[in-house]
Each structure stands twice: as structure tokens, then as C-alpha cells.
Design brief:
CATH class of the largest domain in chain A: Alpha Beta
Distance between the termini of chain A: 39 Å
CATH superfamily of the largest domain in chain A: P-loop containing nucleotide triphosphate hydrolases
CATH architecture of the largest domain in chain A: 3-Layer(aba) Sandwich
Structural class of chain A: alpha/beta
Helix content of chain B: over 70%
Largest interface: A-B, 30 and 30 residues
Number of helices of chain B: 15
CATH architecture of chain B: Orthogonal Bundle
Number of strands of chain B: 0
CATH superfamily of chain B: ABC transporter involved in vitamin B12 uptake, BtuC
Shape of chain B: globular
CATH class of chain B: Mainly Alpha
Strand content of chain B: under 5%
Radius of gyration of chain A: 18 Å
Strand order of the largest sheet of chain A: 5-6-7-3-8-9
Number of strands of chain A: 9
Structural class of chain B: mainly alpha
Strand content of chain A: 15-25%
Number of helices of chain A: 8
Oligomer: heterodimer
Chain lengths: 245, 297
């Protein structure tokens, strides 16, 4: 049963998602409230990304219901999904967050320009606005994408593996930034991650995706060493065997 | 050799304007082909347009007899520039958009896109020669088209080019934000509520229109050079997307100007000299990297 309150940012009731004839996620029920930090975990190929796409509205629910109301969504994609061939500056990338608010021919407004610079400062990249986006390190590019998502002025921020492939210090910086957004601004965060340690230190609850089913795990169960690692390891092994087969 | 530009302008004003206009606008479309890593489209699609023109010539006798071209008989239709240009543009358009559609449909299937486009180019090239062979007039016309004989451009062709390229440039500027985000990060575009399919369709229309009209006026060789070389050169020099757009159009314009100079100074066909001009500017764009001993992808 999905908990429903007046402040619910997103509720998903018995929703299923898939591609073509294949159903990847079935009967998922989630409710997301302000200032929640939710991690989505599970083995490779379990449907985490499909669930995230369903939350964002990038995939229509085949059955069930997804109610986003007037919730403003922000999205931070995996930085490797963005082509580095584009000769974009950091500011040109961050400005994209305001594209939904601008008239057709405009690429910036004075108010949004200030907001972009503020958000760059917020993510610790003040003074980097004219640098080429493609020349930044993985962690810095991730921060730029977070600044862009914040320019969307979201109530719910969805992140796809934000610390994948970044060094320990950069991952800690991203974690601290996300936690401050939740605590200081009441932003709700839904984060897809493989990194258990990262999730343990910041998520208030976790969704476990496996075999097309979404189940909720408490923070306490995440703190119990062994159980989740074993499941992740089993998932990795199964994926490896699948590739070899 | 010195060129008497006042005399050249008096004789070939439309050709000069057409070359400069193509130099200015084609790179704006080419920028998207380059950034989306679909630069091969810039090579294959003009060949589809040429194939369409050749096909139009091959079936012209049947078309005049059964459908009609403005009520003209075959000989008059071949002589009447206005009707003939419209007829050829229609066929160039059918083949260009048909080619785009086929490449899009096959693009959904797994496999090498570069190989698919290369195969499409080979088939379109063979089709151009075979269809042109079926019509002696068509063979001469297609040969001139492939040579890039911009000097023989007529008023109706120039007017069509000006209107079409003006529309393309305006649409590129008006919808720049959506076209950029949909190309760079379609998922975020959807989250922001931008109609990704609408923008993709718009881009296909703008590419198709540029190729259709450009192929018939400045010729396929000049067209694909202006679609591909200026963005490639600009990518070596630009420090931002804004400067990339400006630099690619300036290089396109410079290529046309350099081509005009070379053509009139050495009495060479204009189309290939524009391509040579673009090649020279591409080479120059690499100089800063060669001198610094570094390369960029």
C-alpha cells in the first residue's frame, strides 16, 4: 500500500514499465515526500534505470498509475551518456536547466543567468563558467550536471549513478552536497546507485529492485553488513555468467 | 591573377549571392550533423537528391504524357526553367526525404550506421548514373549538377534558394535551444517538457530542405563540402557552442569567397574551387594544434 499524504511529491501505484513486449518492472508502488533521500539499488539488469525512467515520465506506465501532480522534477543523467564532442562551456550546459522556462528563440534570461552562476557556486564550481565542459574531471562534470538540475528549480531530484567512476574525495563532495540540499532546502532525492557505502551514509530509505519487483528496504537493513553486498555480488555473478553464456 | 570584381558582379550576381548564402547557411545545418556524429548524412543525402533529379529526367516523357508539367509538352518542359526547376526539386525532395526515412528506419536496427550510410551512398550514386543514362538531357544536366556549375543559376532557382535557406536559418535560430538540448541530452529535454519528437522531425525537415534545394542549385559536391568541412574546422577553434556556430558559418562564407576568387582568377569551375577553399580553411584550422604539438578529437 502506498502511503499518501497531502505533501506527497510523487506516488506510483501498482505501476508496470517495459520496452516493446517485454515488461521490466511490474506492480511497483512508491511514494516520495519532501526531504526524503531514497536510494534505488539492485543487481545489474534488474530494472533500476527502467524504474527511474518511469519516475521521470520518460516511460509511460503500462498499467497502474503514476501521479506526479505539479511536482517539478530535476534530472542528473550519467555524465558518460553525454557526448564530449559538443564544444559547450560549463555555463552553456548549466543554462540548459532553464530552457523549459524560456521563450523559443532565447537561450538565456538575466534572472536565469544569475541563478546559473549561483548554482555553480552552490556546487563549488564558481569561476569555472567559461571552461570547456569536456575538459573537466568526472567529478566536476557531475557537479555541473547537478547545477544544471538545480536550475530547473526541482522539488524532486533524480540522479543516475552520480558517483560512478569518480574518486573517493569527489564522491564524498557529491554526497555532502546532496545531503545539504535535503536538509537545508527540503529537496527530495531519488538516486540510482551501485555503491552501497555511499547509499548507507546518506539514504533515508532504499528501494531494492530485482526480477522486475520493487521492494523497500529500511536503512537498518542496509546497515546490516553482508545481506545487501551478497545480493549485489549475486547479481554481478549472474550478469557475468549471462554474458559468458 | 587579378579579378575585375565589378565586371564579375555585373555578369554573375545571382551565382555570387547563391555561393555566399550557401556558405553561410549550410554549416548551420552541418553543425548538427557533425555534433550528432551523423556527418556521413551530409555526404549521402545530396547523392540521394542527385539521384532524384536523374530519376525525374528518366521518367519525364512518361510524366509529361500522363501527369503533366504545367500543361507543357516535353520539349517546352525541358526548356521552361521555372516548370523544370520545380519538377526537379520535387523529385530531389522525394528522394532526399525518402533517403532520410530509410536511414532513420534502418537506424533503429543494430549494426554499423556508417556502413549503412556508405551502402546508401553507393546505391544512390549508381542510381544517379543509371537514371541519367536513360535520358540524354538528364545526363548533361546531372553532369553539370555534379560539377557544381553555380554560374548557370537562374532567377527562379536563386529565389527558391533564398527563401528556403532563409527559412532554414530562421528556424535554426528560433528553435536553437530545443534543437541543441534534444541532440545533446534528449532525456533531460523530455523532463523539461520539450517535445523531442517534434524537434527531431523539425531537424529532419530542415536537413531535407537544405539538401533538396542546395543540391539543385549549388550542386551535391559543394553542398556536402559546406555541410561537413566548416563544422569540422570550427571544432578545432571554438571554445564554446556560440563561437562554434559563428566560426563554422564564417568558415563557410570564407570558403565560398575563396572559391569565387580561385574560380575567377584561374578560370576554374566554381563548385570544386569552393570545396578546395573549404579544404584550405580546414587545413589552416589545424595549424594552432600542429604548432602547439597537441591534438583534439
Amino acid at each position: 500500500m502506498v502511503p499518501q499524504t497531502g505533501s506527497c511529491l510523487l506516488s506510483m501505484t501498482a505501476a508496470s514499465f517495459g520496452y516493446g513486449k517485454q515488461e521490466v518492472i511490474g506492480g511497483a508502488s512508491i511514494a516520495i515526500e519532501p526531504a526524503e533521500f531514497i536510494a534505488v539499488m539492485g543487481p545489474n539488469g534488474s530494472g533500476k534505470t527502467t524504474l527511474m525512467r518511469g519516475v521521470l515520465g520518460l516511460l509511460e506506465a503500462r498499467s497502474g498509475r503514476v501521479d506526479r501532480g505539479d511536482t517539478r522534477l530535476g534530472y542528473v543523467p550519467q555524465r558518460e551518456s553525454l557526448d564530449r564532442l559538443y564544444p559547450l562551456t560549463v555555463l552553456e550546459v548549466v543554462r540548459m536547466g532553464a530552457f523549459g522556462r524560456l521563450r523559443h528563440w532565447r537561450t538565456k534570461s538575466r534572472g536565469d543567468e544569475n541563478l546559473c552562476l549561483q548554482m555553480l557556486e552552490r556546487v563549488g564550481l564558481e569561476g569555472a563558467h567559461s571552461k570547456p565542459f569536456s575538459s573537466l574531471s568526472g567529478g566536476q562534470r557531475q557537479r555541473v550536471l547537478m547545477a544544471r538540475a538545480l536550475v530547473m528549480q526541482p522539488q524532486l531530484l533524480v540522479l543516475d549513478e552520480p558517483t560512478s567512476g569518480v574518486d573517493q574525495a569527489a564522491a564524498e563532495g557529491i554526497r555532502d552536497l546532496l545531503l545539504s540540499m535535503v536538509r537545508e532546502e527540503g529537496l527530495a532525492i531519488l538516486l540510482v546507485s551501485h555503491q552501497l557505502e555511499f547509499v548507507r551514509t546518506c539514504a533515508s530509505r532504499a528501494l531494492w529492485v530485482e526480477g522486475g519487483r520493487v521492494t523497500e528496504k529500511s536503512k537498518e537493513s542496509l546497515l546490516q553488513n553482508g545481506s545487501v553486498e551478497a545480493l549485489l555480488a549475486a547479481g554481478k555473478k549472474a550478469a557475468k555468467e549471462g554474458i559468458q553464456a | 591573377m587579378e579579378v575585375e570584381w565589378s565586371l564579375v558582379w555585373e555578369i554573375f550576381p545571382l551565382s555570387i549571392l547563391a555561393a555566399l548564402l550557401a556558405g553561410l547557411v549550410c554549416p548551420q545545418v552541418g553543425n548538427f550533423l557533425f555534433l550528432r556524429r551523423t556527418g556521413f548524412y551530409g555526404v549521402a543525402l545530396p547523392q540521394f537528391a542527385a539521384c532524384g533529379v536523374a530519376f525525374g529526367f528518366a521518367i519525364m516523357p512518361w510524366w509529361v504524357a500522363h501527369v503533366g508539367i504545367g500543361g507543357l509538352d516535353l520539349d517546352t518542359a525541358l526548356e521552361d526553367t521555372h516548370a523544370a526547376v520545380n519538377y526537379h526539386m520535387a523529385w530531389a525532395g522525394v528522394f532526399t526525404f525518402g533517403g532520410l526515412g530509410i536511414l532513420y528506419l534502418f537506424g533503429q536496427k543494430p549494426g554499423s550506421e556508417a556502413a549503412r550510410i556508405a551502402a546508401a551512398f553507393a546505391l544512390a550514386s549508381a542510381g544517379t548514373i543509371l537514371f541519367a543514362h536513360a535520358s540524354p538531357t538528364g545526363e548533361i544536366f546531372v553532369h553539370e549538377l555534379l560539377r557544381g556549375s553555380i554560374l548557370v543559376i537562374g532567377l527562379h532557382e536563386f529565389e527558391t534558394l533564398a527563401v528556403a535557406f532563409g527559412f532554414v536559418a530562421l528556424a535554426m535560430w528560433w528553435f536553437q535551444r530545443g534543437l541543441l538540448l534534444v541532440s545533446f541530452d534528449p532525456d533531460t529535454a523530455r523532463v523539461l517538457g520539450l517535445g523531442v519528437r517534434r524537434y527531431e522531425a523539425l531537424l529532419v525537415v530542415l536537413i531535407g530542405l537544405t539538401v533538396t534545394i542546395g543540391s539543385l542549385t549549388v550542386g551535391p559536391v559543394v553542398l556536402f563540402a559546406l555541410l561537413v568541412l566548416p563544422p569540422l574546422a570550427a571544432s578545432h577553434l571554438a571554445r564554446s557552442l556560440r563561437s562554434f556556430r559563428w566560426i563554422s558559418s564564417l568558415i563557410g562564407l570564407g570558403s565560398a569567397a575563396l572559391g569565387l576568387q580561385l574560380s575567377f582568377a584561374f578560370d576554374l569551375p566554381l563548385g570544386p574551387t569552393i570545396v578546395a577553399g573549404a579544404g584550405i580553411l580546414l587545413g589552416l584550422s589545424l595549424l594552432p594544434f600542429l604548432s602547439l604539438g597537441k591534438s583534439r578529437t
